[in-house]
Amino acid sequence: MDHGLKETLLHSQPLVEGVLLKVYRDTVRLPDGRTAIREWIRHPGAAIAVPLFPDGSTILVRQFRYAVGKSFLEVPAGKLDHPEADPEETARRELAEETGYRAGKLTFLARFYPCIGYSNEVMYLYLAEELEPVVSHAEEDEFLEPVRLPWTEALDRIYRNEIEDMKSMLALLLVDRFLTIRNAP
Amino acid sequence: MDHGLKETLLHSQPLVEGVLLKVYRDTVRLPDGRTAIREWIRHPGAAIAVPLFPDGSTILVRQFRYAVGKSFLEVPAGKLDHPEADPEETARRELAEETGYRAGKLTFLARFYPCIGYSNEVMYLYLAEELEPVVSHAEEDEFLEPVRLPWTEALDRIYRNEIEDMKSMLALLLVDRFLTIRNAP
After folding, report:
1. Are the beta carbons of A113 and B19 separated by less than 8 Å?
2. Residues A112-132: tens digit of each pLDDT
3. For residue A83, which of A113, A46, A40 has the smallest C-alpha distance?
4. Chain A: nearest CA to B26, how far in angstroms?
5. In this predicted model, what pLDDT tens digit does every residue of B94-143 receive, in sequence order?
6. For helices A151-159 and A166-182, what crossing angle results, to 10°?
7. Pair (B89, B13) in one structural domain
8. Low-confidence ranges of chain B (pLDDT < 70)
9. Do B103 and B19 have their domain in common?
10. Which of B18, B115, B141 sits opposite A114 (nearest CB)?
11. In a domain, B3, yes or no
């Protein structure tokens, strides 16, 4: 399915073995035979859990994002421990850590790539229901403020562009469509 | 609006001055006084132009994305030349380069951040209308296949999760909502 567009690896050079980021500079062969440089980030992937309570509310988390230099209202999410880790288990863990709720039921909705220009990161989206409170264990270095709000308010914040985190915008819109279809008569 | 979550820079170390990627490792002070490491990518930003023809069709572009290792069907988009470049001008240029159409009318719809965990990249979304064919000038190293398709088919491909590029999924959904409201009686 690469439609004659595929680029093949000639040489790979690790640029950074960072605490958080692994960066590579690869030399590739283009479809027309020329060579080009591709620099990219190796990422283990991430999982998103959008909680939905019986009263129709959800929980978002406010978090300061250093790379951008401001705080964002986001859906609960977190990195996989390694590329082969179970996304569903990761979604369940991150939801508990960030919101203090355990999900009795997770529904997989979609897979998407946030940053295809320079990262292999993939995200798995789950709807989290049948929520029960647990003791929350926030990770080291994670400063989070959970914000419980009505579903329609979360959508309105997207449409007013007050929510600006791309994964959160897409996740809420995809969950909303799923709910619309599920609730249709 | 940082809600006591702000992290302040203590020391910044450039890790990579790459051909494409600029990577930094910063030491920051956390809200509780401890220090932490933040590695991040400096990016000039990007602009998206979703073309809409009077017959209700759009153009997506198929492109091989080396970082992920496969090709994606995407909305036309491209990087700003520098962080102060005009996003609207960038959207116009990328649309012409990637689809061969010039937009007589661009409507700004939203701003969002694709990768807040490790990049300062911001994306500006425009709806592109009043389209006129121009001679296409594909950039060096860009191998693109434009695909013209009905609007509803583009949406269906999102809902079937055949489109997996996050910016393209969100862009098409936000344009669709804008059109629904604009076309409402």
Report:
1. no
2. 999 999 999 999 999 999 999
3. A46
4. 9
5. 999 999 999 999 999 999 999 999 999 999 999 999 999 997 555 544 58
6. 130
7. no
8. 1-3, 136-142
9. no
10. B115
11. no
